[in-house]
Fold this sequence. Notes:
- The protein contains 15 helices and 22 strands.
- The protein has helices at 59-65, 125-130, 132-135, 139-161, 202-210, 248-267, 280-287, 313-320, 337-349, 378-381, 402-419, 494-503, 508-521, 536-543, 574-578, and strands at 21-34, 37-44, 47-53, 73-82, 97-108, 165-166, 184-186, 194-196, 215-223, 235-244, 276-279, 300-302, 324-330, 356-360, 366-367, 393-400, 430-434, 439-441, 448-450, 474-479, 482-489, 529-535.
Amino acid sequence: MQRYERTVSCGRVDAHYLGKKINLSGWVNKRRDHGGLIFIDLRDRSGIMQLVFNPDLSQAAHDQAHQLRSEFVISVTGTVVERSAATINNELATGRFELQVESIIILNKAKTLPFTLDEAANVDEELRLKYRYIDLRRPEMHQKLVLRNNVIFALREFMHNECFYDIETPILTKNTPEGAREFLVPSRLHHRSFYALPQSPQLYKQLLMAGGMERYYQVARCFRDEDLRSDRQPEFTQLDIEMSFIKEGDIQDIIERLIAYIWEKALNITIPTPFKRMTYDEAFNLYGSDKPDLRFALPIVDITTLFADTELSFLRTILDKQGKVGALHVPSKDFTRSELDSWVNKAQKLEAKGLLWIRMKEDGTIDSPVAKFLPTNFATIIKQYIPDFSQASTLFIVAGKQSQAWTVLGRLRLELGKELAMINEQEFNFLWVIDFPLFEQDETTKQWNAVHHPFTSPQEGWQQLEPSQMKARAYDVVLNGVELGGGSIRIHDAQIQDKVFDLLGLSKEQAKNKFGFLLEAQELGFPPHGGIALGLDRLIMLMCHATSIREVIAFPKTQRGYDPLMAAPAEVSAEQIGEYGLLFAPKKKE
């Protein structure tokens, strides 16, 4: 191979280089033949520089330029000149200059690509992931990974300045019931025993507090064998934080200042602090979610008492079972009948058993499938609940057990917000949700489960309450309706931990087997402590207004947890499996 050198990056050529001979290397972005002259847009990660191949300057280089195709990798030598005024490209940082090429080396040719960079956004995602290295050549993908780099650099800078220690914790660890399903790794040296890949560094970071580290953070890789969504991957990255001798407000202050610092450094945007606080009960009652999107209003209104004497049989049945009736009020939108029918269908897809609508038409009359069952003075009565109900107003109503009905209304609220353009897509709206329930009950088994995890400290007075009434010293930070992360003040007292395990149905033997090391540490000088973890993939996704975390991860899996590039997961030989003392179970007959 011919020797080559690179003296400057394509996007860094400026007036300083005028009249100078330089060497550039990169990919052929576009080629244009203009009679005797050939123009090449040469691309590297810094930008694009226009090359000119003139046969009068170098016939040999001109002849080689005829061979060039998109995505050939080349190195060129030439002199930087200024473009004529008519050919300046103001859209490029280098648009005032071009390189008159004197020699060229073709470093690597490229066959026809499976897709062009220009059409990549419109091809099947799995094809893009199979050829991810090609997809990453697109400027928009490059910019997302640059943003990711800048965010992580900024957060490390901030955490260092706040006197946190960056400490790595093990990847091969112990299987513990923290909530999500874990990936298990068989041990070759210890047959019938397994490591687990960490769902989070939760237990290790608590033990670091027992070790006197006081302020810990880690950009941690975590693994969960869960069903996937647009904002989930089987492996992901989180910013993990733990602090000793603190209260909830200390963690929240650190996170607010960290987020403001990141947005300022990476986006040059000022984020106002402190963030709004809202209790879990308030968030659910108003928005049907523990992570409400506050970029638009449209709260849920409880209109149960409005129908206290209703003759509508389906509502009567629900109310007699202590159910609730909730409504979303959409003002100044005169829906057509077909649009209303469409929203009924959408609500059913959102798991509503039914959706009732009531609207006031422009002439002030009430229209609804159940209009004849409504009081004649409905337009007056409803103003007690919704004062601005008027012409062109519509109510969307869902009834049922409150936990179910309000969840459906919360989903419907988001769909209305999107479809009716109520949301400012450029806004960053942060929120703390606090005072979460400590436990939630499985409706089938009636077993109590921890809402966050079993190491979350209960709020004072918890022992005098029923499990359903107990509140946690827990907090989630939410951005635009997406949970960025959650945390809590932890239990540091072995007696309290033992009582929480008991409420969760863990026997002393089970607790000792799973968490004996933690229980022992709690009896050997464990300081009060708390922490939080932020999902960095989600955070960066929201910063660049992407629709999926796959767009901000260099090599993500598909929604089925499959890696088309490496064809993983893949089968291994029976011999390899045998080394671990394992056998495949026979496949079940379908």
